Target: Efflux transporter, RND family, MFP subunit
Amino acid sequence: MRRFAFILVATTVALTPYLARSEDTEQSTAQAAALTVAVAAPRTLEWPVTIPASGRLAAWHEAVIAAEVSGLKISDVRADVGTAVKKGDLLVQFDAETSQAELEQQQATVEKQEAALDQAVADAERARGLTGSGALSKQQTTEYLISERKAKADVLSAKAALASAQLTLERTKVYAVDDGVISERSASLGNVVNAGDQLFKLIRQNRVEWKAELPVKRLADVKEGTKAVIKTPVGDVGGEVRLVSPTTSTDNGRVTVYVTLQPDQGMPAPKTGILASGYFEFDQKDALTVPETAVTLKDGFSYVFILKETEKLTVARKRVETGRRQDDRVEIVSGIDKVDKVVTSGGAFLADGSVVRVSEDAQSAKNEEAK
Model:
C-alpha cells in the first residue's frame, strides 16, 4: 500500500510541469484569439450644416458668333478652341474683294446721282425765278420741280445702297463680342458660308457655374446668396447661389440651382461639362464625430463597435446613422453616446461579442486624456 502511494506521488510530481505548461498554452491561445484594437471616445466638433448636391459645370452664358454675310469665302481664321480672346479681337476674315468692288461701285453711283441732283436743283431754281413771267409754261415749271424731287430721292437711295455696301464690307471681318474663351469652332479656311451660319461659341468672360440639382423639399434652405463648396478636378472651389430655377425638371422632379464659381486667384477655371459633387453651407452646429476608420459598412448600413469592459474586454456592434463628413472624421447622428469607447481600428475583423485587447498605444493615449 505504501509502495502504491509512493508511485502515485511520484507520478503526480513528474506530471506537474506538463500540467503547468498545458495551462500556459491554453492561456496563450486564449490571448492569441483576442484581436488587438484601438479605441477612442467620440469628439464633439463645431461643423457647418451642409446639404449635399451634384450637377454639371456649365458656361454662365455662351455666345454664338455667326456669319452675317452670304456667299463669301473664309480667307483667314485667327482663333481656335480654347483661345482666350478680348472683346473686339478679330476672329475671322472673309474674302473682301467682291465687297470692296461693290462699295466702290456704290460710291460712283452716289457721285453720279449727286451731279444729277445739282442739275435738277439749278433747273428748278430757274423755273421758280421765271414763274409769272410767261417764259415757261406752268407744266414745264412743274416738271422741273418734280425732277428736283426725284433727283433728291435718287441721291438718298444711292447713299443707302452705299451704306449697305459699307456694312457688307465691314462684316467680312468677324470680331469677338465679349471677353472669354472659345468653346467651339465651326469656321474653316476656304469655307463659303451663308448668313447665320455658326462660326464659334464663346464662354463669356470665361465664367463657369455649377448647375446643382436639389429635391424640392430642400429649396426652403437654399436661396440667392447661399454659400457652396464644389469639388472640381482643380480643387475645391467656393461659390454662391446666383439663381434658383423657377421650374422643376419633368425628368427627375428636381430643381436646378445656378451657383457662380469663385475660384481662388491663380486657380484655373474648371472645365465645362464635368459632373461635380459639392454641398451648400449654412450656420455652424455641433457634431458628434468619430474617425472614418471606425465606421464599417454591411448590407448597406453603417456600424461601429463599442468596447464593453466586463470580465473580458469585448465589443458590441451598433448600427448608426451618419451625417456630415469633414477631413477624416464622420458625424454620427444617432446610435452611440458621448461616453462610449469606439473601436477606431481593427473593426473590419470583428463580430458582435468578439474578445479584444486594447493596443498599448491606444491605452497610453487614453491615460494621457484622463490626465
About this structure: The radius of gyration is 44 Å. The domain at 62-94+172-205 is CATH 2.40.50.100 (OB fold (Dihydrolipoamide Acetyltransferase, E2P)). The chain has four helices and 21 strands.
